[in-house]
């Protein structure tokens, strides 16, 4: 698995909803480094283009999430995924505790 160039200590926005697009826009305007994850290429186009935002497209399993949290230096996780996307939420909660990241619903 390969990610884009790492941003320094950043937010991870688990997206895929209208609310996540609005939140990403606000994050972009505040110039906070943020990685947005979505599961489809069509969802990628919903998010603003900004130098402080990266969009990752694809599914992450438990091991990949742990690696992602460490490699990308995630300090805050914002889960704004679809309410039925329970698997990613459960996996991130477990890994966030392990990686000492702050998890926010």
How would you describe this protein?
The protein has 105 residues and is α/β, with parallel strands linked by helices. The protein has helices at 18-29, 41-44, 62-71, 86-99; strands at 10-14, 34-38, 53-57, 74-79, 102-104. Helix 3 packs across helix 4. The chain is globular.
Query: What's the level 1 CATH class?
Result: Alpha Beta
> What is the N-to-C order of secondary-structure elements (H for helix, E for strand)?
EHEHEHEHE
User: Helix/strand/pairing class, anyone?
Assistant: alpha/beta
* Main sheet overview: 5 strands, parallel
Helix tally equals 4
Distance, first to last CA: 26 Å
Helical fraction equals 25-40%
Low-confidence region ranges: none
Mean pLDDT value: 83
Structure described in brief:
By secondary structure, the chain is α/β, with parallel strands linked by helices.
Task: Give structural attributes.
105 residues; 5 strands; alpha/beta; 23% strand; five-stranded parallel sheet; 4 helices
